[in-house]
Amino acid sequence: MEENTVKFKSYAFALRIIKAYNFLSAEQREFVLSKQLLRSGTAIGALIREAEHAESKADFIHKLSISLKEANETEYWLMLLHDSGYLDDKSFNSIVSDCQELIKMLISIIKSSKDNIKNK
């Protein structure tokens, strides 16, 4: 159940990232940081999708761990874009809270998956 929720939320987040990228490149004329944001922000969901067909529980954990790293990187780019004035407070607070929610969900799934391996 939790994996389905994270799959749905990561896809919705990727769509928000694409819209943010379009805004940043078209309206703000910012191309370097926004491209980094696009890459890491859409990779989160792609890695979650990869994990669905992992070869083993260890592979599943590994793929979700990489997704977690991408989410953490995305949070960094969002903070940098906000603190440099490209994202206003309202936009930043909305999208960064979604990113932080994904981070928490991924941490929880990874932790419970590791616990399940230990308990077997």
Shape: elongated
Low-confidence stretches: none
Could you give the count of β-strands?
Answer: 0
| Whole-angstrom Rg | 15 Å
Largest sheet: none
Q: Helix coverage percent of residues? A: over 70%
Secondary-structure element series: HHHH
Strand proportion, as a percent range, falls in: under 5%
How widely separated are the two ends?
A: 21 Å
Count of alpha and pi helical runs? 4
Structural class: mainly alpha
Topology:
Layout: H1 2-26, H2 32-52, H3 57-83, H4 89-118
Helix pairs in contact: 1-2, 1-4, 2-3, 3-4
How would you describe this protein?
The chain is mostly helical and 120 residues long. The protein contains 4 helices and no strands. Helix 1 runs antiparallel to helix 2 (32-52), helix 1 (2-26) runs antiparallel to helix 4 (89-118) and helix 2 runs antiparallel to helix 3 (57-83). The two termini are 21 Å apart. The mean pLDDT is 95.
In short:
By secondary structure, the chain is mainly α. 86% of the residues lie in helices and 0% in strands. It is built from four helices and no strands.
